[in-house]
Amino acid sequence: MSCGPASGRIDWSNVFRFQQQQVIMKVEDFLKHECNRRQFLENSARNAAGLAVGVASLGSAASASPSERVRIGVIGLGAQGRELAQELAAQPDVDVAAVADADSRLLGPTVDELARETNGPIRAERDFRRLLDDPSLDAVAIATPDHWHATMAVMACRAGKDVYVEAPLSLHLNEGRQLADVAAETDRIVQTGLQQRSGAHFRSAIELVQGGGIGRVRIAKAWVVHRRKPLPAADDSTAPRGVDYNLWLGPAAARSFDSNHFHRNWMWYWDHGGGELGLWGVHLLDVARWGLGVDWPRHVSATGGKLYFNDDRETPDTLNVQFDFDDATIQWEHRSWSRRGIEGRSAAVAFYGDDGTLIVDRGGWKVYERRESLTASSSELLGPHLRNFVDCIRSRRTPSADVETGLIAAGLCQLGNAAYRQGQPVDFDVDSMAARDDAANTLLTGTQRTPWGDALA
Q: Are 148 and 271 in contact (CB under 8 A)?
């Protein structure tokens, strides 16, 4: 390749075009050999396990003896927690040895489901602290409502457990920062449930974007558009038999029981969740910032509200957020009352480059506005993500969605919700990890009820 004229001056446009061609050839080669995706993922898992051979004499997953098995407890047994437990039990070197939930009605059915997948007894507790006190457990997986994530994970780290915690990492920014600090102090592995980070097709999409395959990219957009049902108000009542509602509330404000502030609907209330932004945005905004190679925004603005539903939820059914970085912008949009998605997809991320547009979701990715047909089909997400967590427990390597990654992904959602709730933009100072105005900082800072606040002291 000739990089420049005879004068010796380099023609950087030719260099860039050559690099771009190399990236495209690399991606096309990847896609050409992706016909057996499952085999690719299985080989990757075996290779990753092989890297752990000789580390602390633990051996590889394929040859693990009973004394080398990783023992994990699962806390929170809603739909996500049960799926986590089953996927963990399917790992060849993992025993799901204990489960916990403040709703004891969920314990028996979960143990029955797991008994078909694992050997040995499964301990069932209503109080998760019994799991943290168990020296036989190496790690815990936390799938509780969001308001419990950071406090419980801090307690687990201090109890000597490695932690898998569902996204978002925390409900409030200060709690997430505290968890990151404690994880570093205690040398614990913390994997956040941002499973796209372990998906082969998400990784190839990011490689293409970052390698210049669609040219210069300064704008990304993430969204979720779907139709939810209205949420009528619920009267105060008595918690169902078998439910320790005070424990379920934990660090959140005390309140009388009502069915809306409990299973299935807690995410629509600020004391417990972050609405669609905390539920879907944490995953999709993480992909957007991953592709753009950015961390914390300097300016966040938001507009929206409850424009469709006249019901009991507190979080907005319609929201547009703009995150401004030094040299890039990410846009977020959700509509919880519509069936027509953006770019033909209900939940996705689009990267807009000057030489094409790449759109990725859990079903795959495709590049538009290019003569070449560049696509990839879906890949497994949760299984490889949990495999990465288990391998990192053994090797002590940094997991694919470590605590700092989870901190920023959750932080984007917290900043977006703060800008919406205060009705004006938020200017963020990354050095102090705080907004530049007191009103926004009040929204970004959570306080925990006694005695749970002691965990974050």
A: no
Segment 199-225, tens digit of pLDDT = 999 999 999 999 999 999 999 999 999
Q: Closest Cα to residue 289, out of 437, 401, 164, 132?
A: 401
Counting every residue written for the chain, the total comes to 457
Cα–Cα dist 264/274, whole Å: 14
Per-residue exposure over 183-202, b if at least 16 CB sit within 10 Å of its own CB, e if not: beebebbbbbbbbbbbbbbb
The whole-angstrom separation of Cα 76 and Cα 103 is 9
Q: Which has the closest alpha carbon to 245: 263, 231, 268? A: 263
Q: What are phi and psi of 156, to 5 degrees?
A: -65, -45
* Token pair in block for residue 395: 């090797």
pLDDT (tens digit, 9 = 90+) per residue, 62-77?
A: 334 445 899 999 999 9
Give the β-pairing of 434-435 and 426-429.
Answer: antiparallel
**What is the residue type of 106?**
L
How many whole angstroms separate alpha carbon 348 and alpha carbon 285?
Answer: 10
pLDDT per position as a tens digit, 268-278: 999 999 999 99
Reported pTM: 0.86
* DSSP string computed for 258-323: -GGGSTTTGGGSTTT--HHIIIIIHHHHHHHHHHHT----SEEEEEEE-SS--SS--S-SEEEEEE
